[in-house]
Amino acid sequence: MMQDLQDLDNETCWLVKELKSYIAQEADFLPRETGLNIMESAAENHNGVSAKCRNAKVEDLWSLASFFGFSTQTFVLAVNLLDRFLAIMKVQPKHVPCIGVSCLHIAAKMVEDECNISPTHELIRISQSKFTVSDLSRMEKIISEKLNLELKAITALTFLHLYHAVIVSLTSERGEIPSIERLEAQLKACLCQLIFSKAKPSVLALSVITQEFDALQSLAMLEIVQELQRHLKIIDSELLYWRGLVAKCMTEYSSSECNKPDNKKLVWIVSRRTAQNLHANHFSVPELPTIPEGSWDESESEDSCEDMSCEEDSLCGSPGSDAEGAFFPSEFCNQGRK
Fold it and tell me: Which of 34, 260, 282, 316 is positioned for an S-S bond with 93, CB 3.0–4.6 A?
């Protein structure tokens, strides 16, 4: 049975205090909404980064994170860094592969054990991107400087784990609680759509849990969510809005994939031609020329994007593998690339 939040044990009381503390700080790690709006309104033939381009790169990062066995925390932090950077900088699509891999590498260095981080050249080789180790190092420095060295973040995953722990502590009906791996997979699917970067992390995480309990028709679990919502003073209309978008995302996504714990490396089936190209790219990649830096101004529109061109054309998303892996059904992998 559910315990009331007014009658908490010490551990649960500490979890709720942590939730309140993080809610007070979460706005500091949100991407600038002006920049997100510019990406949303950008056309595909525009010289700036569009939502489609950004979403494709996040899918690539999910694939790379799975391939190298990185944790969900690494992936979520990489997406947060990517969105915060793209929302304040004028970026050409051809630079997005380097930016994306740089964000993933920064996140991995902050989250993973050093022994679990692959060499930089291997990360670049597997991503099939046209830049060098020195390009990656230079881009990481730019990202770090533009984000004012605030590379850690309070994310929706932070709240997802705390909510899950509180719910476990408040009920004896453990069989009705979805696994944290399932909830993490659903959150990762949401993060592949730019719209969710506008959500408060606390609200997005609670929306993922709420729609899951709603789908399971678990009234007891929904009561706990309502009690958490009331205790944390999350507005009904805000939760309802994002809950609806999460439900829509889960409908579009192959929700059965969310049942699989995301703790295995993604398996890529690589053709002989792709393997040869990978081997060749490792030794002969063109260096990116110096990247001019320009920031979004709050009053600027998408038409004022400063050109950040480079001599080598590249796609906004790095080339994919010849077959999808366990966590990328074809209908999801192709979403947003049509």
Answer: 316
